[in-house]
């Protein structure tokens, strides 16, 4: 029943009663109009495990799927958040990936955000769910929807083959840094495979050492070199991997900031991160956001969204 992480803003509700919560949700949807406040009150303050039990209790007592009922009652971004909260993490990720590749055009940012930040176990779980839900492997879907080197990087990440130990081979780290330098800054044109081999395979501690060595050899930060050497989605995916290795909370804080800054809001990004990280590391993301932008994530969400959508996001964000 515990939360899936210990740095989340959403934690286990004490005195939890699945049947009582199911009843509350039923009441919120009965008759004319919907009581959105009651829906927020329940769903934004329960862990994913608790929400699964509410779904079971609802089905037992009402004889209908809670997600279907909510889906017909709600709309827009508020509905997207609520339905996301009802899904298990790999199911939600698989759903988001599927949506990102639907129809004409691909939302590459979604593929990058998810595949660059998840652990091997998380990616394996997503692969299993995707195949089961959509009767096609995620690798086939990604391969059919992307191309070139960008596709190869995503396929490499999908194999969930990253070393997740914490052994650092100093000599290898120096060699890796040299290989990347010689594949990029030191030559005309870029040998992207070298970047892939190092960035998609090595463990986090080792890569942090590689980044240090790279700085010594080239006098540049690895991110700076990637920006100079690559462009488009390939640049984005390599940068995302580097940033996630340095700090996942900082990576997500930056993604949230960019989703809300300037004109219009990229709601798909905002919703995906708030839903998927609320129980894992939202406290750290908030701290990084404050540190990086000198403003609270809470104030940004407040100024950039409205209505019930704003209310539920603020609850997931936790107190200012």
From TrEMBL:
InterPro entries: Annexin, Annexin_repeat, Annexin_repeat_CS, Annexin_sf, ANX5. The keyword Repeat applies. Keywords: Annexin, Calcium, Calcium/phospholipid-binding, Repeat. It holds the Pfam family Annexin. Belongs to the annexin family. PANTHER family: ANNEXIN, ANNEXIN A4. A pair of annexin repeats may form one binding site for calcium and phospholipid. This is Annexin. The gene is ANXA4.
């Amino acid at each position: 029943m515990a939360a899936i992480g210990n740095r989340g803003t959403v934690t286990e509700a004490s005195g939890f009663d699945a049947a009582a919560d199911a009843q509350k949700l039923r009441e919120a949807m009965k008759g004319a109009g919907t009581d959105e406040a009651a829906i927020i009150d329940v769903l934004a303050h329960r862990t994913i495990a608790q929400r699964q039990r509410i779904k079971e209790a609802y089905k037992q007592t009402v004889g209908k799927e809670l997600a279907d009922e909510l889906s017909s009652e709600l709309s827009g971004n508020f509905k997207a958040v609520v339905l996301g909260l009802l899904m298990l993490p790999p199911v939600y990720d698989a759903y988001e990936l599927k949506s990102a590749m639907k129809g004409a055009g691909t939302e590459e940012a979604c593929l990058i955000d998810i595949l660059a930040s998840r652990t091997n176990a998380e990616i394996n779980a997503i692969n299993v769910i995707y195949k089961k839900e959509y009767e096609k492997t995620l690798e086939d879907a990604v391969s059919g929807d992307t191309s070139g080197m960008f596709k190869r990087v995503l396929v490499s990440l999908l194999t969930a083959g990253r070393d997740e130990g914490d052994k650092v081979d100093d000599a290898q780290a120096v060699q890796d840094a040299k290989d990347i330098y010689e594949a990029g800054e030191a030559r005309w044109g870029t040998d992207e495979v070298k970047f892939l081999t190092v960035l998609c395979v090595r463990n986090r501690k080792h890569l942090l050492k590689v980044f240090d060595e790279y700085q010594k050899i080239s006098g540049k930060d690895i991110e700076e070199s990637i920006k100079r050497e690559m462009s488009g989605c390939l640049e984005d995916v390599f940068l995302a991997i580097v940033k996630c290795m340095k700090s996942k909370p900082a990576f997500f804080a930056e993604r949230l900031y960019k989703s809300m800054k300037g004109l219009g809001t990229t709601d798909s990004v905002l919703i995906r991160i708030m839903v998927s990280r609320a129980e894992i590391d939202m406290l750290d993301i908030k701290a990084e956001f404050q540190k990086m932008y000198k403003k609270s994530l809470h104030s940004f969400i407040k100024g950039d969204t409205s209505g019930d959508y704003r209310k539920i996001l603020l609850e997931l964000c936790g107190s200012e």
